[in-house]
Structures are given as C-alpha cells and as structure tokens.
Structures
1.
Amino acid sequence: MEQRTIAILEKQRQDLVVRVLKKHEEAEAGRLLTERILAGISEFFLLFDKDFNLLQANHGFVPGRKYNPSSPDSADKGDLSLHHLFAPEASKRIQTQLQAGDTSEIETELQVNDAEVPVRLRPQVHRTPGGSILYILLCTDLSEFYQLMERIREGQKQLMHSSRLASLGEMTAGIGHELTQPLNTILLLARNVLKVLDAPSDQQHLIRENLELIVDRAERAGAIITTMRSFGRRVEGDLAVVDINALLQKILHFLSGQLRIHEVEIVQDLVDQALPVWAIEVRLEQVFLNLVQNAVQAMGETEHPCLRLGTRLQERLDLQSMRYETCVVVQVQDNGVGMDEKLQKKIFDPFFTTRINGGGMGLGLALVDRIVREFSGFIDIVSSPGQGSCFSVWLPLHASACQVMKDNQS
C-alpha cells in the first residue's frame, strides 16, 4: 500500500514538474516573441509603471544611460523615468495627459543619447488583470520629416528668388524708362549750367536752381537703383504684421514704369484704414507682384487696358473651427482675355503656363497659391473669356486689428 502511494505521489511530482517546465517554456517563448516584436517596431516603444518609471523599451530606443532593453534586471532601468526622457514642461504635460486618460497625439522632443529627437507621441493607458496601471508611449521619430520639410522650404525660397529675378527681367524696359528720364534731365541741366558759367552776366540764382534740380533727379535715379538691388537680392523675412494697403502701394510704385509703357490705367479702391495680416512681407510682395504682372500680360491685346486694385474686410465661416473670422480681401481685376472654366482649373498646377514661346516656367501662380495657403488664406477666381479676370486673395485679419474692431463696436 505504501509503495503504491509512493508511486502515485512520484507520478504526480513528475506531472507537476512537466507542467511547470511547459509553463516556463511558454512564458519564455512569450517573452522572446514580445522581444522580437518590440525589436521589429520601427518606432520607440516606452512602457512605464504607475509612477512613470521605465519598465521596458525596444532596441530602437538607446538613451544616454545605456539602458539595455533586453535585460529586464538591468540596474540602469530603475534610474530612468519619464522626466529623464523629456524636458520638464513636456514631461509634466505627458504625465497629466496620461493620468487623465487622454490619448491624443503629442509632438515634443525625446532626449536620446544626449541629443533631442523630435517625436510624435501616441500615448496609451493599459490596466492589467490585477488592477495595475501601465502607461505606453509609441514615439515616431520625426527627424527625417523635419529635414525634408527644411529642404522643401529652402527649395521654395530658391524658387521664389528665381521668380523675383524673372520678374525683374520683365520689368527691365520699364526700369530703363524710369532711369532715362532723370538722366536726360541731369544732362540737360548740366549743359545749362555750363552755358551760364560761360556767360559774363551774374546768374547765380539760375545756377543754384539747376544744381538743385540735378541733385533731385540724381537722388531719384539712385532710389530706383536701390529698389532694383533690394528686389533682386535674395531676402527672407520673419513672420510679422504686414499692412496690405501699404504693400500694394509699394508694388504699384515699383511697377510704375512697366505700367506706363503698357499704357495701363490704374483704378484703386482701397479701404481707408490699415489692413494688417500676419505674414512674411517679401512673400506677400511676390504674391501680388505676380498677380499684377499676370494681369498686365493678359491685357496685352486689349485696346484700353485697365487694372483695378481693391481691398475690403469681409466675414467668412472657417469650416475647420466652424467660427466666423474677419478676412482681408484683395482683388486684382483686369479687362484682358479672360479664362474658361477648364483653364481656371489648371492655372495653379506647377509648370502650367498660358504664355507662348517659352515665356514662362509656369511656376508663378503655383507659388502664389502655396504662399497664400501658408498664411491660412485662399484665392478665388472669377473669369470669362473676353471679359477679363478677377483674382481675390483672402487672408485672415491680424488678431490685434480684430480686437480693435470689437472694442469699437462695443
């Protein structure tokens, strides 16, 4: 009887050992599978406990403390917590968001190997069957994306500079005309002075008048050359408040010679107040310069070309925020050849141009559309064949001006 009991107990012991070994193998297999999955994730995977101490990370994450994710018992693991991996403000924001159960994405910088890596975080909150809380952060490295965006911005700057130089080339005839007038005047007045000096009579007042006129015309010619240099120089400003009306006056002044050569009548309908928008002035300058030059080109065959420039304030519904906002609307209208609906759908496509004989690269309006969208605006077109075209540029009014308007209304 005792032998039989011993045999039964031995059999149960062996079965228990086998089950324990199987459980151990299953757990080990599960651990290895988890490690392989984590190793295959291209993103950073960070697992924290309820106190935001780092429990596990994949091999893609190698912080400056040399934490080894494949060693669960690593002594360094306990040294790492959320505030070691992110800046204080970012760490506090992430902790608050996770504790509130908010899983919306966050863009911040992760500190890896003594460097700050731009990342997009996708937080998750997990509760284990035992009631423990675990916090998970999936971090997408945005370094390459930011580098790509920087290259795109640099390419856009170069493209805009090329466009400005092309515009400068188109204005050469007008600029030459602008310089010819003061130079001819200077030459004529200088000859008059020489004649007066050769005469025996005292004509000091006449000499002074002629010299003052020479100085005035020389300064005017110098101002034209200075404007040409500043326009041809590659410049890139910062975001600032830009007065649309002042900018339009500046462009009309710069194009005055070209407009006179083409005998274009200018009709201005600008509101009698400053119209501030938040933008980069040199880029907006390129927008309206391009639109005005396109209008002049469209009126090449028009008997009495007329360019109308108008500004106004108008409310519109922002479909993203579903709120009404005040916009500055700039209209550039011509009485040129106009466009049909098919052509209107193509004019903002890159490398599409209506100019013949290689008269343009087809990048002007594509660049204009991109710049306007960059400043949260858009462009409307109203055009008919033979009836001319009207381009309306919508840009949000700067917040300071909106506040002044509200104060005046109250």
Note: The chain has four domains: 1-35, 41-141, 148-236, 239-410.
2.
Amino acid sequence: MNANGHEVVPSTRGPVLVTGGTGFLGEHLLRALRGRGQAVRVLTREPTAELRELGVSIYQGDLLTDSSRVAPVGGNPSESAPANEALELALDGVKEVYHLAGMVSRDPARTQQMMHLHVDGTRRLLLACQRAGVRRVLLASTSGTIAISREPEPIADESWPYPVELCGDWPYYLSKMYQEKLALELAPKLGLELVVVNPSLLLGPGDRRGSSTMDVRRFLCNEIPAIPSGGVNFVDVRDVAPACLSAMERGRSGQRYLLGGPNWTFAEFLGRLGRIARIDGPWLKLPSRWKSLFEGAVRAVDELYRHRGQTSPIERISFEMSQHFWYCDSSLAVRELGFTSRDPAETLDDTVRDIRKSLRY
C-alpha cells in the first residue's frame, strides 16, 4: 500500500537513485516513483520521517565531502562508510539516476557554495555513474538558465543561449548554467545518456523549506511593497514530477525541456494571488521606463550597507530579478513528453492554503 492507501504493483525495473529527495520537487518525484511501484534509493545528508514513510532506501551521504556516513534503512549502523563509498553503494545495480540535489539562494555570499555543489557535485556524480554502469541521468535545472529577458517578447524556448549577461550577478542561476554546461558536455564523453528538465517557478503544496514559494509567503505577509515591472512564469510541482518520469523514459539524450505554466506580468500574478487569498496586495506599480533608475538606486543602497557591514533593507537580487521577464515556451515538452499543466488558479489556491497552514504552526 502507498501513502494514500492504494495498492502498489511492484515494478519489474531495477532500483533508481534520486539525489535531492528531501526537496520540494524531490518529495513529489519520490511519491510519483513509489506510486508506480518503483524501487527507489535516496542519497541524502538528512534522513527524514517523510523519506521513511515513503518506503525508500536511504543512503546517508554527500556528493562532496568525505566525512559523511552511510547506512541503508534497516541496515546495521556499523555498516557505515565515507561519502564516496555511500555514493558507490547507492549506485550499485542502478541504471537510472534523477539528479535533483541543489541549493536555492539569492545570497551572493553563498556563490562558491552553490558553485561547488552544483558543478563539482554533478561532476562527481557523473563520474560515479560511469563507474557503476548507469545508463541514463535526468538533471533537474531551472528555466532561469534559458528564459530571462528584459522584454516580454519574444518568448524563450530551448534554442535560446545562456543569458549570462543578464544574470551574471545572480549566483544561483549562474551556478545552474555552469552545471548544465558541464553535464551536457561531460555525459556523452562518459557514455551516459543525459536529459535536462528546466521547470519555471515551482508552486503548489509541500514546500517544507519555503525556498520556492518564498515570494508567495512574502505577499501573504504584506512584505511586497510595490508591483514589479517584469513578468513571471510558474508551474505546479505536481505537474513537474510526472514530467520528470516522462523525460527519463522518452526525453532525447542531450536535450533540455522547459516546463512552465502561464506567462503573466507581476501585476496580473499578484492581482490574481490577492483575489484568491482575499487580501489587498501592493497598489504602487514601478514604471518600466524607470527600471534602470530604480536598479541603480537599489545597487547604490546595497553597496552602502555592505560597506558598513550591514544588511540592506532592499534585497538587491530579488529586486533586479523582478524587473525582468521569466516567460518561457513549453511546446517542446508538450510534444515530446506529453507535458500538461493544470489550471493556474488551482495551483495558486493550493499554494496559499498550504502556506497559511504552515504559518499557523
């Protein structure tokens, strides 16, 4: 029986490995895999009650350090080993790997940490996959490695180049670009099939860490002072999880797939969010023609506070990001993966309900 009380038919396929299984997308992916009877292994630094409830095999370890320990669920704690051995053990007999492990942060102080995890960690994983005889790897990235623009049109698809000039100062997206480039170049050299999925802003229920839904939480707490001049694309995490399964099964090796929902201006997004949440959002709209002036002023304030060793009252990177358009075209995923996205009103409503529930605790 699965977590919903439904009978699960055991899969005839071998076990798969998931990294980042404790994350927002990771937990939904694990539920999708277990729902079809798949044997799943998870490499994680922090075994959680949720992982144990899902009935996955937990390998406690780390992609980077050599000090972590490993102990499969139900195994003898004395059967522990350094993290490099944890990865080797987790990969033994595995032919498919879902690589979701990562860090989401807008803090420039974490640039090197994110580069180390996303780039070096991915390199180590791919090399270990080759040694273990893994056939296929799915890398979960972000639409932000492709779909960022100062203008709403044209709308980005997978053919667009990396927009390094736009987000060179945004550490998370820069590190994910380098991760993608490394993976797409290294995998074929190692004889691995690799598919990349690029979901837009993930919303929906179950964001335990609040890293993806943080801006909706800020809106509900009246912490967004003005309507940004840019635009956003968002997608329900419950639609992305099955799309990852489809990408593993049907995606073309070496291909990236954008997974997104509606393309809305922030004015429309916040307006609809306000109506669903039944609260008044910000009324002040930042004129797009003053975009450069505002960005310059925010940078100046940020530099002043940094010089004083203080935290700026305005988060520079969040402000700059909100002045851009994150629109994307998911037509390729629709055609090749059968990707579909649900009514965005359902996504927003469920996100609001889930956040409000967490705020009551």
Note: The two ends are 30 Å apart (CA to CA).
3.
Amino acid sequence: MISLAGLARKNIRHNLFRSIAIVLGVAAATGTIFSVSAVMQSVRTSLTRNADRLGSDLIVVPWEYKKKAEAAMADGTPITFYMAGSVLGEINNVEKFHPKLKRKAKVVESASPQLFHISSEAGCCDIGNKLLVGFKPANDFSVLPWLKNSNNTSIKNGEVLVGSNLPHQQGFRVQLYNRTFIVADKLEASGNAFFDNSIFMVYDDLKDLMIKSSAPLPDNLSWDQEIVSAIMVRTSPLFSTQVIANQIGHDVKSINVKGIVTKQVQTSIGKQIFMLLRAVFLAGCVLWVISFLLIAIIFSMIVNERIREMGLLRAMGARRSTIFRLTVTEASLLSFAGGSLGIIIGGAMFFALRNHIETSFAIPFQWPGVSQFSLLVAVCLGLGVLTGVCAALLPAIRCSLMDPDKALLKGE
C-alpha cells in the first residue's frame, strides 16, 4: 500500500522540471539569507567580544593620535604613540558635578596605563613587527582576564603573554631585543588582531627594552620620567561614557588628550558593515518572496492539471483532508529539499570564502559557535519549509474542497 509521502514523491518525479524549479527557488532564497545571517551573527559576536576584550569603557590617548588609534582598534594595525605618565594621576582625579547628588563625584572608577612598542624585524627579535604591550599587572583589567590557563592570575618580570594568533605556547622561550622571555600563558582568542597578534609583558620590562634599543621619543619626553601610550579607563556609572570622555579632555591640563569610547568605535564599525549586509539580506528577502509566489503559481497549475485525478481519489473514498495533506506534503518535501540545498551551498560558500570576507570587511571576527550555527540552520530550514507549505496552502484548500462529480467533469 502506497503511503501519502510515497504518492507525493511519485508526483514530484512525474513533474521533474517544475519540481527542480521550486527546489532551486527555495535554495536561492534560503542560501542567501542563511549565509548573510551567519556573517551578521559573526560580526555582531566579534564586535561585542572586542569591546569586552578591551576591558575598558574609555581609552585615553594623545589628541593628535585619536583617529589613528580608532583605526588601529578597528583593523588591528600596530601603532605607537607616547605621552607623560603623570597624566594617569590627573585622570584619576577628574570630577564632575552630579545634579541629583548635588555634589562633585569622581568620573573614573579605575585606570590602567599601557605602553606600546613594535618589535624589530632584525635578528635581535624572534618575532618582528608585532605590537609589544607593557602593562602593570597590579591594576590591570584588560589583559589578565583573558588568560587561557585558569591557574595563572598574573605574570612576573621576564615573562610574557602571547596573543592567540602567535605560534608560541606556554613554556616557550622568546627572544626580544636579545633578551629571552618565558611564555607564561596564551590569551584566549578575541577576534581582534590588535590583541591576538600582540605580546604582553610587565611595564618595566618593556620600558627597559625600549631604553636599551634607543627607541625614539617625542622631544618633550625622556626616559627619566614615566612614559605611557594609552590609559585604559573604567568609568563611573553616574555619568554617560561620552560625558566622562569630554570631561577628561577638558580637565587634563598637562597634555591634550582625547577619550575614545570603545563601544562607539565598535558601533561605528558595525553600522558600516551592517549597512552592506542589510542590502544583501534584503535581496535574499526579495528572492524569498519570489520563491513564495513561484511555489503558489506552480501549485495552482498543478491543481488545475490534476482535477480529474483528485476527483477520482475523492470518488474512491479519499477524504478531503487526505487531498489537502497530499498537496501540502508535496510542497513540504520540495521546500525541505530546497532549504537543505540552500543551506549546504550557503554554508560551503561561507566557510570557503571566510578569509576573503575578513579581508573585505577589514576586521577580524569570530565565526559562529556550534550552538549558534545549529540554531541558524534550524531556523532557516524551518522558514524554507514554512514558505513552501504556506505558498501551497490556498491551492491545497481549493483542491480539497472540490466536489468529486464536478472535478471528474472538468477533467474530461
């Protein structure tokens, strides 16, 4: 005895050309939306993790380097700039009047300095053209939280932490400016090349390396004083981050500084990327509408061609619900095949072109995890099947409501 699904498969094979057209239509729509959604999810995850990776609400830099620093945060390009370390004390002391509290309140909860230098490509360094970051473990909140080994909580002089993209593992030795360091740990992948390609060490070690290598400084600075490149700042929740950035820029008098709001940088980058992706996503939605109309038209044609066949089935005792389910089952099988094909093609292109996607966006980003990817597959496949079922719904209802006698007469 042939089942309902078996009969639906026979009908699909009997009208192979039309069946292929439906499958390809659903595949094009599903594949486009699936691949674009996967990229959008990856970018969103990366932007969120990158902001968290910095561990700060603000990054204070010399005002003339603000745009370059923002670009470096976006694309991971190593960059160096310097200012007097005394600016840290001024930043910690910045206050602003709070109207509700009716008094002045500190705008900075904590601040941590970092020093930047780029390793030489000469023989004195095992790894050249990499950003060396000196930080102070005692008050750090942007590097140590990303240690891969949970048993480690800090590093000592003579040790380094390496970004996830570097080949060195825990216990390896690294030579920098003819001095050997031990890799204490590796940082978790952040998706941000500015950190994932960098080497982190204690502030005093990096300063010592820079002095011995005769690293150049601006004319108004000397190694007799404390030198920093940037100040990582955690802001008070009493004020907005942008207000605090403006207040710091106004109150710090020793040097002109600018506060970069880390989330604004990420949001700005995200908006540019999502504008492009939204256009592609809309194109996928248009394909989806076309597929819906295509399936509806084709099934209307199928119903018209099978009037006599449906009449015979009804005359032989088939129920209205059986006729309805036969049409819907056929649409479901075709839509499922199209959705599966679209996801396979879209997923294959997504992974095959991942390096090109990263290069085009000029931002490294996290690829979806297994759970996110599985959920996306299930949603897109479900939407594909739902599209086919909904498109065939009206023809299926019309077909099931036909009177057997009239259907047999029309089919003659």
Note: The first strand starts at residue 58 and ends at 62.
4.
Amino acid sequence: MSEIILKIENLSKQYRLGLVGTGTMQDDLKRWWYKIRGKEDPFLKIGDVNDRSIKGTSDYVWALQNINFEVKKGEVLGIIGKNGAGKSTLLKILSKITSPTTGSVKSRGRIASLLEVGTGFHGEMTGRENIFLNGAILGMTKTEITAKLDEIVEFSGCGRRVLGLWALYRYACKTLQ
C-alpha cells in the first residue's frame, strides 16, 4: 500500500461577512462619502449584489464545506474550479496561511502554495538571488538551499539563466514524487 502524504478530513472554512474597516482612513472616508451620496459601496461585501434594492441574507459564507481527500506519495493533485469555488482558500489552509473552521489536515513534509505564477519572482534580482528568495518563501533554510543549489539549477534546465521560482517549483515537484 502506498504511503499517504496528505489527508484532508471534513475540511470546512466559513467567513463572517459584514462591514469591516477597509484598513485605511482614506478608504473608510470614501465608503462614508459614497453612502452619504446614496451611491453603491465601493467596498461591497461578499454575498451582496450591485443592486441596492437586494441585500444578502446571511452574515456568513462557506468558502469550503466537508472536503475529504488523500494524496499518496508519487501522485499529482490538481485543483480546478470556477471563481469563488474555494481553490485559493484550500491552498491557504494547506500552506497554513489560514486555519480551517472545522476538519483536519494531516501532511508529511512541507507544503507551500503558489497562488500566482509570478509569486516571489523579482525581475531585478539574479537567478541565484531568486532561488534563495523563493527558498525562504517555501520555508527552506539558507543551508538547505546552498546544499541543493547546484541540483536545483541543473534540474531547471536553464543553466546560468535559471529563474528561481520555476527551478524551485519544478525541483519541489520532483522531490515529492
């Protein structure tokens, strides 16, 4: 039987909706000014529609509900879905950026989510510098990166033109299999 490296059981994530400060005084004043003028809130909350006569009925939204799956060593997992399906929420929970409302995540090894293709890539840095930057983002120590640097560069197939993110990502995928 294959070794299970990731197991998700009854995973759910719920968010509370409502008027929460925007984070800046300028944006809070903008919200207030739009309200005074009878215009649509520029920071419309999730669940509301752009029609001022209709209001969302719930103060809560489930981003994920009762997700169950497991991944065995050597398997590949793809997460596909429409906008708002919970793909990014699942990745944030897996990489421990946020915690689930209910359920559990059991994993062996490190998990880091790449929510955007360009995450962590800095165009003004060298390939080597990008490898160290992205290694740090993925939770690797400087010693680990230094020890594996030649292997990462070789595996990338880019040689001296190595792009840190892709090299590290491809290397991480290879080592998980």
Note: The longest strand covers residues 4-16.
